[in-house]
């Protein structure tokens, strides 16, 4: 399944995001619990495309990571999607500031746009705006070959 194709099942009422790896308290958070008050204005246009900056709402990744309590040696996060062949790695400090978005311009994110949960990172490259987020693995070093995002730059919208 190419990263740009939505999953067949994307029910926000049943969707969870799991945080595990180098954490004291692994957890699974229902998508409905991610609709907090954090927001970000961002465009999801890739290089050569134009799109207005729109309002995305959700929860800061750092809020969720703090609940999982990363180990003192944790340095990176690997964000997974419904596509088992796609994952995107981030420095943990940068990931803390990212948004796990559940709403776009006040409405739940449509499945085609990455809903029910999409990762938005400030100043992101195209492949770093992960659609259909299912898991964040906290790591005690860079992800290496597990970070497949750069090899599979997705079509985005």
From TrEMBL:
Species this chain originates from: Haloplanus litoreus
SUPFAM superfamilies assigned to the protein according to its UniProt record, in alphabetical order: Oxidoreductase molybdopterin-binding domain (SSF56524)
InterPro entries listed in its UniProt record: OxRdtase_Mopterin-bd_dom, OxRdtase_Mopterin-bd_sf
Every Oxidoreductase molybdopterin-binding domain range: 5-141
Protein name in UniProt: Molybdopterin-dependent oxidoreductase
Domain of life per record: Archaea
One Pfam family cited in the UniProt record for this chain: Oxidored_molyb
